[in-house]
Amino acid sequence: MSKRICYIHIGPHKTGTSSIQWFLQENRAELLKYGYFVPETATKHGAHHPIARMLCGQELPDHQRSVAAKFTRGLIETPCEAVVISSEALEGLLRNRDHAKIFFTLIRELNLEPKLVVFPRNQSQRINSSYSSGIKTFRLSGSFETFVQGVTQGFVFRYSPLIELADAYDAELIARPFTGETIGCGVVPEFLLAIGINSSQFRNTRIRRNEAAGPFTVSLARGVLRSIGRTGKRLKWLQAIRCKAELANYLEENGWADAGYCGLTTALARQIEAGLHPDNDLFAQRVWSRPWAEIFATDIRQEFTPNDFEMSRPDETTSRRLELAIREMTPIVEEIMLDPTLSAEAPWNDPRQRAGWTQSARVQET
Question: Would the N or C end of the chain have less CB density within 10 A of its end CB?
């Protein structure tokens, strides 16, 4: 049997992945008619995280193990010549050499030809969105400036390692720029084009999901995490998921949910872009044969005014509301941390290990 193409959408985070995954889940039957097999998933919004983690050799919780088995059976049973997997977790996992080796070995054993689909985004905007998301999901508690210093000194927000990854495992790299225009027009049509489908054949391609948090939400989650952080305990994955849900419920019940967080100043954005310019240009010239500044011209000219409460103090009413919210949310989170059903000591429940950070693994560096 000839190899089938496997389109592997690896994100990265904050580039419309939730919209793409929701579309794939809602249109599985229709995509089958066009010869594209989209595996079933155990996640609520259609992400293939369990399959991705299984292919990377990571341990799965009991309730997700059947998904991996169904994936293998589905490949055997489907007549489709193309397979589509979407998990932004892979963008980080595949930067770990051990995980990448296991992943591509299993992909080849399944007789699949890998094509990596990625949506690079200008880092200033992506870093801003990643920070608010990390706070909202109870994974971060530091200041925005501290976060920027950490991520710009590492390799996580650099794109050239993806070229090296594709070259090392003989996988085609399909890159589509995720720009402000992409956000306005919708990322799904761009994704469908990347895997060889005309989006006009589908109706519901203008999707926008997972709205970014606002400054009040960020300040509340950050304040709660700092309150419990004095104990030195890190939240487990299941605990963080429950905290995120409780935070959303609390904000909705009180009518305090907001959107549009910004920690950037224009000067900081230019500093980020200047530091990453060599790597960005190397990537853009290699995959698009054009300079990064030409492709992301509008994005790199964008100006920013921060609304982070640590940089732009809120009015007195908002400050009092925030203090009350932190007092009321903190005991809720403390109770979650005492729930033994959420604190399992297992690799799949450790946020750092889920991201591919292990003591024994050799992580790719730029």
Answer: N
Crossing angle of helices 17-26 and 187-194, rounded to 10°: 70
* 359 in a structural domain: no
Amino acid at residue number 277: H
| 307 and 255 both lie in a single domain | yes
Residue 76 is encoded by which pair of tokens?
Answer: 């055997």
Query: The dihedral of CA 40, 42, 46, 51: what is its sign?
Result: negative
Task: For residues 172 and 113, give the distance between their C-alpha atoms in angstroms, rounded to a whole number.
Answer: 9
Count the Cβ atoms, other than its own, within 10 Å of residue 86: 29
Q: Are residues 184 and 75 in the same domain?
A: yes
Same domain, 102 and 30: yes
Cβ–Cβ < 8 Å for 9, 191: yes
Q: How many domains does the chain have?
A: 2
Query: What average pLDDT does range 221-240 have in this prediction?
Result: 87
CATH of the domain at 72: 3.40.50
Report how far Cα 11 is from the mean position of its chain's Cα atoms: 6
Q: Are residues 50 and 149 in the same domain?
A: no
Q: What is the C-alpha to C-alpha distance for residues 52 and 60, in angstroms, rounded to an integer?
A: 10
The answer to whether residues 223 and 330 belong to one domain is yes
Q: Tell me the whole-structure pTM to 2 decimals.
A: 0.92
Single-letter amino acid, residue 104: F
Q: Dump pLDDT digits (tens) for 137-157.
A: 999 999 999 999 999 988 889
**φ, ψ (nearest 5 deg) of residue 281:** -70, -40
